[in-house]
Every structure is written in structure tokens, then in C-alpha cells.
Amino acid sequence: MKSRFFRFVSLLLLSIVLVTACNGRTSITSKPELPPLRIAYNLWPGYFPMEIASEQGFFAKQGVEVEPVYSENYLGVVSDFSAGKYDGIIVTLGGVMSIIGKNPDIHIVLETDQSAGADTVVVQRDIKSIADLKGKRLGVKLGDYGELFVVKMLESNGLTTDDVTLVDIEGEAIPARIKSGNIQAGQTWYPYTLEAVKAGAKVLFTSKQTPGLIPNVIVFRSNVIRDRPAQIKAFVRAWFQAQDYWKANPEASKSLIAKRLKIQPETVSTDNIHLSTLPDNLKAFTPGFTEKSLYHTTKLYADFSIRTGGLSAAPDVQKLIVPSFVQQVQSGS
């Protein structure tokens, strides 16, 4: 009887030890689930590979979970990112300067596209030339890339901002403000350019006349780059997959994007933009002295922001730009 009792107790103790050991191993080797990368963006065709990569499963195939956060309110997503609500943002290079003024702890990891005609200055029909803008009210988001774009346009005809009255207006509101007569000209982009034209305005000047001036980039917080480099590299790989899919399947991509974003299919177009491929990115992330290099263009924007009061000090461009992710994708590492 005693031997049976001791055998039972021994087996019970052994079971407890084994269960405890198994539980101990589980707690040591298990890894916490990483949250999705939350990346914000607004209505701009060069950003649409985000939806293709999500819908076609390219992010998942590369091993990263991504939560796209779409909004038509450009300034809203910039403000929310600056406030710490997102891990990353797709934004104009001028928008990067706005963010740095509030939160300098960010880095550029990818160029998505270049505006090659999609950014515009639209005007009332009676304005025939840039010279006719003299004395007119011109709407533009002050302190952002649009103001530099307008400055370059005016300079091309020997004018300065002193020759016009700049009115601080977001690009999305330009069509309605021109139609109302509140302004006679305004800086905006597609598809809002189409809205302005349908409302009776016309296109006077486009970014095709300022090549390389308006790149769009993907920015991540420093702590995300530090803690999640593998996920960011996977994101970059999936991004280029989505670009390739769009080029190979333009009609299917147009339907996919229009459905997901609830926009009209005709607004989904790569006309007047240049999607920045991996080779383009490798060039952009190489120091240079023209607008083909992000280092040069970033300094151009930083200097402009300092002159106009948007920044009090120049950012360290070498630290702001992180070329390693596109370089690793190129090398296959």
C-alpha cells in the first residue's frame, strides 16, 4: 500500500515539474506580437502603391503588417504624425520641413515619386500669362513646398512674391476659392486641379517646368527605425512590388485603388508623376549638387524654410536621410 502511495506521489511531483518546465520554456522563447506599422498618407497618386501592397498581400508576403491610414486632409495627417499618432508618413519634402519644426526625431527612408506636372497653379480664365498675376491674390499653403513652387514660377518671369498677394490656403480648397472669386490663382495638385478646371479655371503652370523640385518621401520616427528595421526593409520591398504591379496591371490597379479609397477611377492616374523606382532611389539617396539628389533638394527646402521663418535652424541633412534601406533592398540583403 505504501509503495503504491509513494509511486503516486512521485508521479504527481514529476508531472508538476514537467509542466512547470514547459511553461518556463514558453515564457522565455515566445516573442511579443509586433503591432502593425501605422503609416499615414493623403490623396496623391504617387502614394497609391500603399493600397496595392495592402490589397494584393505584398506586405504580408514580405513579413510585415501595415495599417494604412488615409485622409484627404493633408495638414491633418502631418499634424497627427508630428503629434506621435503614426509610425510613418508619406509626405512632400516640404512637408518634412514642417514636421521637423515640431518633431526633429525623424528620418527619410524612401522616395515614392516625383511630381512631373501633377502640381499646378490654376487661374481664372482671363489670366493669360505669369506676368498677368501681378497684383493678383494667389492662394497657396505658406511655409510648405507649394510656396517654394510658386516662388520658382514667379522667378521664371522676373517676378517676386512682392508682386502678388499670397493667401494662406490649403490645396484642397483652391478650386472653391477660385470659383468664388476670393482668389484669382492658386497652387494645388491632381485631382483637385481637375475640380478647378471643371469649375471654370485653367492651368497656368505645372511642376513639369520645375523638374526634381517636388519629390515625395516616406518618413519614419527614429525609434521605429531603431527598434523595427526588419519591418521597414520589408515595407520597402513590398512598396516596389506594388509599383511593379501597377505598371503591369494599370486597369486592375485603377479599379482596386478607386474602390478602396472610394474615389472616381479617372482620378487614379500616374500621368504627370514619375514613380521613383529602386534605381531612381539609389540615385536620389546619393549625395549630389542637383535636384536628382535628395541631399541637395532637402538643403534647398531647409534653406527656404529658414528664410521664411518655418525653421529656426538647419537640420542635419546627413542624419535626416537614411539610405541603408534602399541599399539593402538593392543588394538583396
Automatic annotation (TrEMBL):
<comment type="similarity">
    <text>Belongs to the bacterial solute-binding protein SsuA/TauA family.</text>
</comment>
<feature type="signal peptide">
    <location>
        <begin position="1"/>
        <end position="21"/>
    </location>
</feature>
<keyword id="KW-0732">Signal</keyword>
<dbReference type="Pfam" id="PF13379">
    <property type="entry name" value="NMT1_2"/>
</dbReference>
<protein>
    <submittedName>
        <fullName>ABC transporter substrate-binding protein</fullName>
    </submittedName>
</protein>
